[in-house]
Design goal:
The protein has nine helices and 14 strands. By secondary structure, the protein is an alpha/beta fold. α7 (about 215-225) runs parallel beside α9 (about 255-260).
Length: about 300
Amino acid sequence: MAQPSLYPGARVALLCISSAVPEDRLETALAAVRALGLEPVLYPSCYYENRHGYFAADDAQRAKDLQDAFAAPSIQGILSIRGGYGAHRLMGLLDLREIARHPKVFCGYSDVTALHIALNQCCRMVTFHTPMPSTEWYKGLDEFTLTYLRRALFGALTGPMPLGDKTETLQGGRAKGPLCGGNLSLVCDSLGTPWEIDTRGKILFLEDVGEKTYRVDAMLTQLRNAGKFEDCAGILLGYWTDCDPEYPEKTLWLPDIIRELLVPTGKPILSGLPCGHSMPTMSLPLGATAVMDADTKTLEVCC
């Protein structure tokens, strides 16, 4: 089955898989989606009155919204309106076999990584690591971010990807394989579950936000000990936004941690990709096959 894409006028479901969208952002988020030529359809989890503690709604409602959006013939794509916390609580409530029968454009990042992993692996879908309507779109997007978001939405996110001047080679080499990963915390949360990330022969992308350096160290160590770096073909590292040491006077800095834990694998590694919890940010097609060349600092999406 061909990977779907959107088109001007396409109806897209907006839902909250994790935390609630702030009330004062909902209308501007809707306007931002319409400005891209899409017709947003709000699902119950987007309404603030349905919030449940620190979730946009209870687990059953959030899972139902996602299941319903994939099943609805009138919906061409699904946009996670924001991240936050709670996507991995939905995993046991979803009928992934049924979702696989209705592949659609699916976008989001951060906590949404839990869904990216499952949809890529269990449903054989390509999904898109993109900014989200009530997190970035509502404020207005820079030209770089908007260009690659449009390419993700409208089916043109192939070919050479823009890595920028800050991309660094940590370990040379060339690798080809499906892109996987996303937010480091959520990738680690998948370990030991039926939806554990499978990095075998894949290019693993990682980024995170708001984690102390020792926590990044712990999570990268967990992935190393689980064999995820040994299994993968190559590693891409994005933004580490506000990932500062707890005690700057006695710490390993992120470059030290990455050098000690990732470089010894001998896998091709590029760091400094403009992708993650900062702007500008590129969009990535998770599940699509890509070729990375750490020597020439290039990344190309094949299909």
